[in-house]
Write a structure and sequence with these properties.
five-stranded mixed β-sheet, elongated, 272 residues, A2M/Complement_sys, Immunoglobulin-like, mainly beta
Length: 272
Amino acid sequence: MRLSTVILITYFVCEVLTSSPVIVLPPFLKLNEQNVITIVNEKSVKSVVQIDHGGEKTNKEIQGDVQMISFHTSSSQPTAHIMIKVDGKIELNTNIPVRPDLFNVHIHIDKTIYRKSETVHVRILPLTHSGSIYRGDLSICLVNGKGFVESSTLRTRKVDETNSMIIEQLEIPSHTFFGDWVVKVQPVEIGSKRSDDLLTFGKVFQVQDYDLPNYRLYGFLTDSSNLDDTKITIEAKYFHGKPVNGSVHVYCREVGSSSQDRSHLTHIKSGE
């Protein structure tokens, strides 16, 4: 009886002193990239790692105290099942999400209010969790004021090896809704039927029916007997003082001429 008690106590002490392995998993598996799982044991043992991702199966056996398993994922399924046996004992049996390694997308547009038929000039900078450029395919589109995707603006783009961002032009349809619109960007891999807020990025702007403000146009002329030496200064400003951006063409015609046909006029200068 005393011997049995000693053996039982010894068994429990051994169980307490023998700690479970430390298994280091990433927060998610990176789609179409290499992933790493690390297992740390107190001594050299055999581990079996089984991964099932949308029919893609990985089964690896590894011996040692510090074990690193590297594998690739390419299935479109949103989760993968991982089971890890260490020294014959199941230490992990769980599902882990799978998604593109896209951490943030910076979206810049040329202004905040547009009219119908205007073009939205967009610059897109996608970044991974490590801060590098994300070079996977991105779906880019405009979402109108009613929450529907404008199919004519749907694009698939990616940052190529020679650039650091995507530059795109999206035209607002002539017959559409007013209100808050969104430049929407998300990875192509998640598909149109999946919704993942962590992988959907947007930039809000407004579409309104507005008129451009009036402005004053000033002209200054320094006359010269030689037409080519004539100096002309054109200045356009809004009433609040801000300059007007635009192009100007200056023509010259004979005194007393009333013709509006520009083919009879002498083109002096063009500029901005």
